[in-house]
Amino acid sequence: MSAVNRAAIEDWSARIRRGEKRAVARGISWIENRDPRREPLLESLHPHTGNAFLIGVTGAPGAGKSSLVDRLIDGIRREGKTVGVVAVDPTSPFTGGSLLGDRVRMTRHALDKGVFIRSMGSRGNLGGLSRGTREAVRVLDAAGLDVIFVETVGVGQSEIDIMHMVDTVALVLTPGSGDAVQVFKAGIMEAADLFVVNKADQPGTQRLVKDIGELLDLTGRSRSWRPPIVETTVKEGRSIDALWRELLRHRHHLTETGEGERRHRDHLRREVEAIMEEELRSRLQKRMRESRFTADLDRVHGREWTPHEMARNWLDRLSGRERGNGG
Ligand SMILES: Nc1nc2c(ncn2[C@@H]2O[C@H](COP(=O)(O)OP(=O)(O)O)[C@@H](O)[C@H]2O)c(=O)[nH]1
Ligand SMILES: [Mg+2]
Predict the structure, then answer these.
(1) Which residue's CA is minimally distant from atom 28 of ligand 1?
(2) Ligand 1 atom with the shortest distance to the CA of 101
(3) Mean of pLDDT values over 215-223
(4) I need a labelling partner for 111 at 20 to 30 A (CA). Which of 172, 180, 257, 280 fits?
């Protein structure tokens, strides 16, 4: 790949900041494809980020996350605000046009200039998925979207990762699914700022609300923010506005208490850590392919050197310090 054309990137960056959908889509594609233009683009966008309200929506497949987001978009648009959605599916190798269900459910908004919806798949690389998601969110943030939803499937590691990149986490549960206990076990409970009991038209709703309440009492999370439980029914549009009000109330809480700032710093720290880890691993793997590494390994195999000695020696080399000063 020839040298990256800075001027062209600045041009795309400016178009993204003006909220041009095509430019936003292009930027996210660079991220997904690890295009050489990705890093300079993110660099150019960075000063323009940090303004959007980032909401994570998590819960089991079929809980109604996409349906809820779709309905929330209506209300947010009526307030004149713009919305981005990143739908993350770790089980899908496909990107862009994937998650047909979400596409179908949200196509109502496809022609709306104030709504941008994008799906992200794993392409077999889960670590890359959370990085890609975070960067995609940053592009949407720079594009000036007021609210950005990050929807994930399931309650695995990728959900935990995603909780570390948003301001507010909404957990969607449904009656009769046995969700509450599972979620409690997986430690997701602690990360949720808000519980949505969706499909409240179905039996078992009150039971689930009660269970969540009891689990909340158990975890003793009643200090400065007790996660509210909102019962919703998407079809009738019931309590969608109440859900939005609770989300805004949490945002207000984050601002008022300084918790939002604390989270932002924590998220950035995690991000820098992840980038350093990734970079170190790739440097390490490059050096392990050197013939010198193989030769040293022979010495360990021949019992001349311990694995520890060799590892330390190579770590020093990795950080640019050669041995031989007798240390
Ligand atoms: N009965 C009922 N069905 C719902 C409700 N909300 C969503 N659904 C249905 O649940 C299915 C899964 O919804 P979806 O939004 O794709 O769930 P996701 O996988 O969590 O994004 C769809 O068939 C929806 O129509 C609800 O409040 N009540
Ligand atoms: Mg969905």
Answers:
(1) 199
(2) 16
(3) 73
(4) 172
**Per residue in 242-275, pLDDT tens?**
999 999 999 999 999 999 999 999 999 999 998 8
Is 22 inside a domain boundary? Answer: yes
The DSSP string of 128-160 is: HHHHHHHHHHHHHHHTT-SEEEEEE-BSSHHHH
Q: Which domain holds residue 37?
A: 1-48
Q: Which ligand is nearest to the CA of 175?
A: 1
Q: What is the pLDDT of residues 125-177, one digit of tens each?
A: 656 788 899 999 999 999 999 999 999 875 566 677 778 899 999 999 999 87
- Look at residue 61 in the predicted model and tell me its pLDDT: 84
Which atom of ligand 1 has the smallest separation from the CA of 70? 15
State the alpha helices, DSSP H only, in 107-239: 126-142, 157-163, 179-185, 205-218
Q: How far is the CA of 234 from the centre of ligand 1 (A)?
A: 7
Q: Residue 272: inside a domain, yes or no?
A: no
CA distances from 183 to 77, 186, 204, 231, 286 (A): 32, 5, 17, 17, 40
Shared-domain flag, residues 98 and 157: yes
Give me the mean pLDDT over the 196-218 stretch: 92
Give the residue from 207, 231, 257 where a domain finishes.
Answer: 257
Residue 199 lies in a domain: yes
Residues contacting ligand 1 via CB (< 6 Å): 59, 61-67, 101, 105, 198-199, 201-202, 233-235
Report the domain count for the chain.
2
Task: Identify whether residues 43 and 55 lie together within a single domain.
Answer: no
